[in-house]
Design a protein that fits this description.
Blueprint lengths: L1 H10 L18 E11 L2 E7 L8 E4 L17 E8 L4 E2 L1 E5 L2 E4 L5 E9 L17 E3 L3 E4 L7 E2 L7 E8 L3 E3 L6 E6 L2 E8 L2 H5 L3 E4 L3 E6 L2 E8 L7 H19 L7 E9 L11 E4 L3 E7 L4 H17 L1 H6 L3 H4 L12 H18 L5 H15 L8 H6 L4 H4 L8 H16 L6 H11 L11 H8 L2 H11 L7 H7 L2 E9 L4 E3 L2 E2 L1 E3 L5 E3 L7 H5 L7 E5 L2 E2 L5 H8 L7 E8 L2 E8 L4 E9 L5 H12 L1
Parallel strand pairs: 1-12, 18-19, 19-21
Antiparallel strand pairs: 1-2, 2-8, 3-7, 3-11, 4-5, 4-8, 6-7, 9-10, 10-16, 12-15, 13-16, 14-15, 17-18, 20-21, 22-31, 23-24, 25-26, 26-27, 27-28, 27-29, 29-30
Helix pairs in contact: 1-17, 3-4, 4-7, 7-8, 7-11, 11-14, 11-18, 13-14
The structure holds zinc ion (ZN).
């Protein structure tokens, strides 16, 4: 679990949130066609028919930013050779305003806009776009259609219906939460799938993954869950993940009680074969109303993958609470090309991430101590960021250069804000009301179709709860005061105590690796940290050069492989290492032992008071 978190810490895990609105009018739909059969130079031809245009000029947009990513993506930069045609097939004048928008003259005669769309996975660095928001074109094998990366919109027509027409070869299957309205033969061996949605937002809110049919579905209460998997080497199938996903979502529904509000959920899992070498390299998931796109390395072992998927997919599923159920106007009326950001990332991402951990201890999927270890780790990682930065200010400015690197902290300190708020609420209400109860109240007040005013949220919550909660927000969330975690832990009978604590094979904590590299690119055991039991038992020493493990050579080029491969080790497994010490090559054989280190660990105090015990129980188990 920690190994996987390390991968995420390195590569930045992105998640997301999106919101639905009312259905559009009965106006003729904008039709967008994607031809997945005639792929040319790894590009897909997209054609968009807007219907009748009544203005002399019109602007066509492809999103600059999409909800939930909190970063600038510029999907328009991947469109090539954009052309506009009139009804007679003559070209109309097009002026590019910037990477993501084009002005079209003589628009009353406009029939269609066409362009070749490139994908993001095989662009160097993926163009800075998170893989889970990105796109993949792999002819005859996989098309990951995060549709904001393919289909654009015309100004003033975003609230009108859309019809998607996708032409594909017969052996590809469309995994999506969206129902196919109609599917019919297009030509020999090819099929046209038609999907209808009420407005542009729903186009972007419903990713589709075309791949060989590898799906499972199951029911949790009244909800249908679809799992669609693309494993390029066929190492995994959807069936492999079904037990873990079913167990997780069942536990989430039990935790939520009567609050959930979707009857369909699709998990689209893309496994990357060669991360960073022409394939997706950042791992995590992007959230949508009734689905999520998950990108993970195919190289991971089954058990490690199940564990990560539990953490990641549960986070995405909890976005049903917020921002789906509760969000501000900035989120509700999202502008894809000029977004205004809300100040409440602590809520949308932080509380979501907190619940994704809390439900696991609440429902017995992890132990109390596992949960404490996770919170402690979040504290440690959050200390790499400016702890005095106002969280609301950071959130409002998250697209600005000065703030954008703080984004990862929404999963760390954001979750810790949720934890501290939960403990405080339980304390003030004598265990009667916690953060989940507050979320239920807010869901009733607002809900998915009624946004709140961004600046009103803290006063509203204070009104619903206690004046002390208003102080909490002013001090620790909008204010600049770091959260005194020890004070909150003391309330529930926890303390930081010196002792043994579990670490990762190659990491003392997510920001402190045991290994470093020298100028020759060799991997070296650091000499400024005391080594864990894993290294001690194998007889390794500070300064040793690690050349190979279990017959596989490692260096700076494939250091990610080392972390990824170690995720598949189990305690007791035989292990062999080739190391170099003082210029001499040594072969070492032994067994994998649980890596432990000495240090401070968040643990339960020896003699808690009744009050502490009750508050702790109410916090974790009620
Ligand atoms: Zn998220």
């Amino acid at each position: 679990m920690k190994k996987i978190l390390y991968l995420f810490a390195l590569t930045l895990l992105a998640n997301s949130c999106k919101i639905s609105q009312q259905p559009g009018s009965t106006q003729e739909p904008t039709i967008a066609t994607l031809d997945l059969v005639n792929v040319k130079d790894d590009k897909v031809m997209v054609t968009v028919y807007p219907g009748e245009i009544k203005t002399e000029t019109i602007v066509f947009f492809i999103p600059k930013t999409v909800p939930g990513t909190y970063s600038t993506s510029n999907f328009g930069a991947y469109a090539e050779n954009l052309k506009a045609y009139d009804y007679k097939g003559n070209e109309l004048p097009v002026t590019a305003y910037d990477e993501n928008s084009w002005s079209i003259a003589n628009a009353t005669r406009l029939d269609k806009v066409t362009y070749w769309m490139n994908d993001t996975f095989d662009v160097p660095g993926e163009g800075g776009i998170y893989s889970m928001a990105g796109t993949n074109i792999n002819k005859d094998k996989n098309f990951l259609l995060n549709l904001h990366g393919f289909v654009g919109y015309f100004n003033d027509l975003t609230e009108e219906p859309y019809q998607l027409e996708i032409i594909r070869s017969n052996d590809l299957y469309a995994g999506s939460a969206l129902n196919i309205t109609k599917s019919s033969e297009f030509s020999a061996g090819t099929t046209k799938d038609i999907f209808r949605v009420n407005r542009y937002f729903e186009v972007t809110d419903n990713p589709i993954m075309y791949a060989a049919p590898d799906t499972v579905s199951f029911k949790v209460d009244k909800m249908d869950v679809l799992l669609h998997v693309y494993s390029p080497s066929q190492k995994f199938s959807a069936q492999d993940f079904k037990p873990a996903m079913e167990k997780m979502i069942t536990a989430q529904k039990d935790f939520l009680g009567d609050i959930d509000n979707t009857n369909k959920y699709a998990i689209l899992l893309y496994l990357s074969a060669t991360p960073g070498e022409g394939d997706a390299a950042n791992f995590g998931a992007l959230e949508h109303h009734t689905s999520t796109v998950v990108v993970m390395p195919e190289q991971m072992g089954q058990e490690a993958l199940n564990k990560s998927l539990t953490d990641i997919v549960s986070h995405e599923f909890f976005h049903i609470l917020t921002p789906l159920g509760v969000h501000s106007k900035e989120v509700h009326y999202f502008d894809y090309n000029d977004p205004q950001m809300s100040r409440h990332l602590w809520l949308y991402e932080g509380v979501t991430e907190y619940f994704a951990n809390l439900f696991q201890v609440n429902q017995g999927l992890i132990t109390n101590q596992d949960f404490y270890d996770r919170m402690q780790e979040k504290i440690m990682v959050s200390k790499n960021f400016d702890d005095t930065m106002s969280f609301t200010e950071m959130s409002q400015n998250i697209l600005e250069d000065e703030y954008k690197n703080s984004y990862y902290n929404v999963y760390q300190k954001g979750a810790l804000i949720g934890m501290a708020l939960d403990i405080r609420l339980k304390e003030l209400s004598n265990g009667e009301m916690g953060l989940l109860d507050l979320m239920k109240q807010l869901t009733q007040m607002y809900g998915k179709n009624k946004p709140f005013e961004d600046e009103d949220l803290f006063p509203v919550i204070t009104e619903l709860t206690y004046p002390e909660i208003g102080e909490f927000f002013n001090t620790y969330v909008s204010g600049n005061t770091p959260i005194p975690y020890d004070e909150f832990f003391e309330k529930v009978g926890l303390e930081m105590r010196e002792g043994e604590l579990p670490v990762d094979y190659f990491l003392q904590d997510p920001s402190t690796p045991y290994i470093t590299v020298n100028e020759a690119g060799e991997i070296i055991l650091r000499d400024d940290l005391s080594l864990s039991t894993f290294f001690e038992e194998l007889g390794l020493m500070a300064g040793d050069r690690i050349k190979a493990i279990n017959g596989k050579s490692y260096n700076v080029q494939n250091i990610y492989d080392l972390i990824g491969d170690s995720a598949n080790w189990s305690v007791g497994d035989p292990i062999s290492l080739t190391i170099e010490r003082n210029g001499e090559e040594l072969k070492i054989k032994g067994n994998v032992v649980e890596p432990m280190s000495t240090g401070k660990r968040l643990v339960e105090i020896m003699n808690p008071t009744d009050e502490q015990m009750e508050l702790r129980h109410s916090w974790l188990k009620s």
